[in-house]
Amino acid sequence: MTGLRSSRLLGSALLAAALLTSSGCGTARAPGPAGVPDPLRIGLSPSILPALQRETYQPLAQYLHQRLGVEVVFSAPVDEPAALRALRDDAVDVARLDALTYAGTDPQDSLAPLVTEVDAETGNPRYLSALVVRHGSGVRSVADVVRAGARIALGGPHSAAGDLYPRAMLRDAGAACPGPPPQQCIAAAATLVTGTGYNTARAVLDGTAGAGGLALRTLHRLERDRAVPAGAFDVLRTHLVPGSPWVARRGLGAAAQNAIAAAFESISAPSLLNLLQARGYVPAHPADYRELRADAERLGTGEATP
User: In the chain, at which end, N or C, are there fewer CB atoms within 10 A of the end residue's CB?
Assistant: First the structure.
């Protein structure tokens, strides 16, 4: 796991914003009901702008406060490695990690996956990674993409849906040599690291890239929000990805972990589930990410082009 683990530690380990809470920050913490720390520090997705956290996630803060009996503090790590470092350094108690980030953690970190979302589109704890092209491009298969030497837009090395599995699709279609020379192979011309699903979609739409990898639910949300035109993309292939787990730091006791997990599993309000882009929550276990960990070891984590 050395290569996969070291890639998780790249990037800044600083938090993008000071902790936000409805009660005072910097006060001493004491155990609340079931040993849940008060306040409970939660790391949000790095894509959430700090200025929008309080307003956007106030419903979640209120729900958890009522359910757990503690105040809630949000923070926004700047990227996935920073979110992981925040858990390791006890800067947050719970954080939502991309499945690929969690799969690459060292067992000695003792990070405990609590829950993962039931995807609103698939109806189960796995969602779809997709390789897409612009509609009308004439490309009908992943093999067409590889043969054309098209530029590929990918989200970045810490994304299972936006990088790892799209590269696996390309490799399966011939974008990597399965053996040593003189065996002939074909490969994509280059990759473009976009950072987000939105940027990937735009790169494909404007022709900067010939194909792109992203979560299919992200593409559908962009279409619903009219950030990209509906029907502007063709999906060439998909792959199921384990859901992103909410993970507890080392040292958070079993009683607190169980209470936090139960709070997420009990969420039923449609408005709150819509905010979290989930149909519900179910328990997450380390074994759920075993296949993803093996795929990441086999394929690498995105530092090299296909």
Answer: N
DSSP states of 129-169: EEEEEETTS---SHHHHHHHT-EEEE--TT-IIIIIHHHHH
Amino acid identity of residue 223, one-letter, is E
Longest pairwise C-alpha distance within the chain: 66
Report the Cα 13 to chain-centroid distance in Å: 17
Q: How many CB atoms lie within 10 A of CB 140?
A: 11
Q: What angle do CA 140, 149, 159 make, to 5 degrees?
A: 80
Q: Which helix (H) or strand (E) holds 215?
A: strand 211-215
Cβ 8 vs Cβ 1: under 8 Å: no
Two structure tokens written together for 109:
């970190």
Q: In 3D, which of 189, 39, 200 has the Cα closest to residue 131?
A: 200
d(CA 294, CA 306) in angstroms, rounded, equals: 18
Would you state the pLDDT for residue 104?
A: 86
Most confident of 10-24, 35-49, 60-74: 60-74
Q: Nearest 10 degrees: CA dihedral of 58, 61, 62, 63?
A: 120
Task: Residue 160: name the closest of 98, 249, 84, 72 by CA.
Answer: 98
CB 169 within 8 A of CB 192: no
Q: What is the CA radius of gyration of the chain?
A: 20
104-131: average pLDDT:
90
A 10 A CB-CB count for 52 gives 11
Q: What are 87-109's pLDDT values in tens digits?
A: 999 999 999 988 998 998 877 67
What is the H or E stretch that residue 242 is in? strand 233-242
pLDDT band at 53 (very low <50, low <70, confident <90, very high): low
In angstroms, the CA 294 to CA 141 distance is 26
